[in-house]
Structures are given as C-alpha cells and as structure tokens.
Amino acid sequence: MSTARQLHCISNPSDTKALAVTFAANDTAVLTCSEDRAIRQWSLLVSPDSWVEILGDNTFGNHHHNSPKCVAFNQEGTQVALAYRGFPLSVWSIDHPGIVGMCERPGNVGLDLWTGVDRVGWNPVTGHVVGIYSDGCVFKWHPGENDNQELKTVALEIECSPDGNLLVTCSSDGTLQIWNFHHFALIYQLLCTSPVIDLAIDPNGQRIYDLRDSFCNVWEPNFLIRLAEADEKASENSSAIGSTKQLPMKSEVSVEMLEPITALAISPQTSAYCAGSDEGTITFSKSGSNQVVPLSQGFMTVTHLVWSEDDSIIVTADLSGRISVKLLDVSSTLPREQALFRISAQGSIYQILLSSKSKRLLVYTSESAQIWSISSKKLVAICVLQNSSMRWANSPHAEDILLCFGFKDLRIFNWTNLEELGSLQINRELIDVESQELAPRLSQKASESGAASPEELATLVNKTFVTPDQSIMLIETSRASDHRRRQKQFMIIKTLDISADGSENIITPSPSRILGRARHQDILDFFIQICERSYNFSWACSTSFPRQGFLGLHWSAERGRNCHLGGGEETFLLTKGLA
C-alpha cells in the first residue's frame, strides 16, 4: 500500500463470480467464495497454476442447497459465514473443514422454521456473527456458544468496529445509528435523508465512511474521538471492552446533504471559487470563508464553469447546451452578476475556455470548435475537427496562441481566427514504456446515436495543468480498458519546448514516473514538488485539513474530475465530494 506497486496478479476462478475475498494465513494467501458454492485459496508464497478448492460440494453435502446470498469471512480467514435463500445462516471452518453451527432464530429453536439473512459480518474481537434478517431485524450470534440476541430495530446495512465495541447500522431513510455492541444500547444517531448504499469504519474507530448516491461521506462524531482518547488514557489493567462500557448517553445529530458539485472554477487572483451544482445553482465562496453566496439558479445540471484570469467574467454551461457569459463584480461585500449574452451550443459540450485577456471564448463541442468575441458577442471563427478526444489550453507565453493537445500530437492555433499555425508530434516512447500493461483490453465503440462520449473513446486527453511560473505543463491522458474503466497516464512538458514557428516538429515529454496504477495523491505530490510551493488542501466547503490527512483517502474513493490549483493563496480544491 505504501508504494502503490502491484505485487501479484491473480486471475479470477473461471465461469463464476466472486462473492467475497479476504486475506488468510497471515496475509500469505487469498480466500474467495464464489457463486458456484466453492471456497478457494490462492497461495502468495508459491505460484500455483490454479485456485485450490478448500470447501466444495463434497464437504457441504446436504447443507449446501443453492448459491449463497451473502458471504463473510472472519478476520483470520479461518471461518466463513454463509447465508442462503430458504436455508438458515451457517458458519463453516476452513482450517478443519466442517460445519461449526447453524443460526436458529430465538422462538424457532427445534422447529423447521427459519428467516433468511440479507446482510452478514463478523465482530473481529468476540467472534460473533452480526447480520440483518430479511425482515430488517438486527442480530448477533456466536456460532461456538450458540448465543443469539436480537436488536429490535430495522436496518439495511451493518458494520462492526475493529475493536469490537461498537455496531453501526443504517436504515432505509438514511439514518445512521451507533450501538454499544455488548448491550445493544443506542449511543449516537445521525439523521440524514439520503439512503446509504454501503458503510465502513476506519481502523482507529474514529470515522465512519458511507456511500450515498455516488458520493463517499466521512462522519467523525465527537463522541468517537472522546471515546478513543478515553481508551488511550485507560490504565494498563483495564481491558479495551471494559473501558468502553462507560459510554455517554444517546446523542442525536441532524445533517443536510449538500448538493453535488458538478463544476468548479477558482480565481487566479484571490483563490475564491465558484461552483455549479447538480440542481443548476451557481455559488460563490471566498477563500477561507464558510459563507456560500448564491449567484444564479438554473434548471439543468451545470457541466462546465470557467472564470477569467482578471476575475471579471464567468462562463457557465449546462446539460441542455446553454452557455451563459456574465460579468462578475467581486469587489463589493456580495458579488454581483450581469448577463452579457447566451449561446445555444450544437452537440455535446466538451470544453469551454476563455483567452488569457478574456477577449474571446472557445466553445468545443462534438460538432466543432468555435471562437466567440466577448466584446461583439458574435461568432468569429469555426473549425470542424475530426478528433473529439482533445483538450485545449492557453499558451503560457503568447496570449494569441491556442494549444490543442491530442493523445499523440499538439496542434497550435491562432486565438483570433482558429488558423492552424503548426503541429508537433508527441513522442510517447517514454510515456508508453509499459505499453503492454497499459494497452486497452477492451476497445470502446462509439454510440450508435450521435458522437461518442468521452468514456467511449479509445484514447482521451483528460486534463491539463500549468505551474504558476508557466514553465511546465502536466498532461493527463487515458486509454479505454475493461469493464468501462480507463487507465491513466501522465506526462510533463516544458512550455519552452512548444514552438509555433515550425522550427520543431516533435516534442518528447518526460514521464511522471507514476503511471495509471499509482495513487492520485502521488501524482499531485509530484506536481506540487515541481511547483516548489507548499499548498494547503481544503474541502469545497472551506474546511481545512492537513496535507497528509484526507487527500489520499477521499481522492481514491471518488472519481472527481474538477480540480484546480490556485495562484493567489496557494489553494488546491477538489470537487465531487472529495477533500
């Protein structure tokens, strides 16, 4: 994990789908349970030709009636809990193959009656199995002691803390509840209207992660921090369980989910920022302030947002293809907007870009690239491009030059009339040094109706960054891979190597040494080292965190695409619910 390097590559068991995977034997083996009702093991110490079946039909016999509905291995990988449709929950030993116990619900003992189980997990300390019956009732059961207790609450998801003292559940209305595991006493409740898809607890037991819609939320209740501090101060003679039994009375917090941020623009002058939401709202926030000022309200999702370098003009585009150009005055206490003109774009909008002096606007769609004059509010140039996988950028050294980055070339245009002044081939030999690994395994086909979306293109230029001193550009490209995923590559280009006079026809970028499999935090750290500056990271809501804190966790948890480097206040912002 520390190096983000691949140590092993294991092929999936053939003709089946894995339901659960875990490490076993002190992290020297991988265990999996598949839909074909088999438990298999792959040793990491040797190189076997195939998976080794540990438990199968010969072992399960008449205890195995169909494919498991849900599966959970214990922390050591020595036991597995299997829940079936129309059959009671059972626990099997892996080290010494055989059944350990079957969960009989209190009141049904001795009767041929049982309730299905929809969720199952383990307490890593006590050895209890925790789960949710199909009627929503939460239970804990010890397969060795046959101790079965129920919690009279309705839940959809369940997770036990790493120290075994807490149980976290969430309900269909989005409410998150924390319980004392030993007494089933409610000690914390968080009310939230958005439903939870999945949840997890961090190894320190101080933060709770949950997935709601397409976002990862991180909750850090104060009582969990106080609880961790109390456990640290507990005497050496006190057990962890004993110290946690003295829990505070139930507390309740109600939160309102923020609207998803879909577009972001940061001021190069002040590091203030404007954000567009899924609901069509445009907001303004000053750097270091928690105040969010609404600027305008639309009806469609804001897809693009750019802010001029002198803070005077803001341009927005929404899902319907409507582009709005507005004057923005941020000198007063409350910012003020004034509409200049609107454009109805033809085709899907890929990018909008203002020239460095805010005299012209580039609108890049699936149909063409267009140049609009801000002063005359008229279309002044249009160019039909065959390649739709490009990314445009202002030249760092000439305000009348427009750069168009392709996957393998760089084309240079005039900002005034879109006249092509020259082109450079990008030598990708160093970038594609691991071409076999990065080669697309599944080429995406374009949509039958209309132009291909960015996710469907075999190759794509995703993003361009430039250092504050305008000397270096970071280019992010990607290739289509399997399961509709994309493998990313990064290259560094010195801006002085970009020549528009035809003296050069090839450019050799430097690889970032951290290809698509590396962590995004490494990429950002690398680029920040190039900038030779010390940035502070902050949430889009301006809550500050240490640099080495949240960034890695949250950047890898979501697929945020809107990130910006601030030039005035050394600020770095990410959207899509990321730190």
What does this 3D model show about the protein?
The protein is mainly beta. The chain has a domain at 18-254: Methylamine Dehydrogenase, Chain H, CATH 2.130.10. The protein is 8% helix and 42% strand. A five-stranded mixed sheet has the order 13-14-15-16-20, with no helix packed on it. A hairpin with a 6-residue loop joins strand 21 and strand 22. The longest helix has 12 residues, at 222-233. Mean pLDDT is 78; it is low at 235-245, 434-450, 514-523, 525-561 and 565-579.
CATH homolog superfamily of the domain at 18-254: YVTN repeat-like/Quinoprotein amine dehydrogenase
The average pLDDT score comes to 78
Q: Helix tally?
A: 6
Shape: elongated
CATH architecture of the domain at 18-254: 7 Propeller
Low-pLDDT runs: 235-245, 434-450, 514-523, 525-561, 565-579
Overall radius of gyration = 28 Å
Can you list the strand order of the major beta sheet? Answer: 13-14-15-16-20
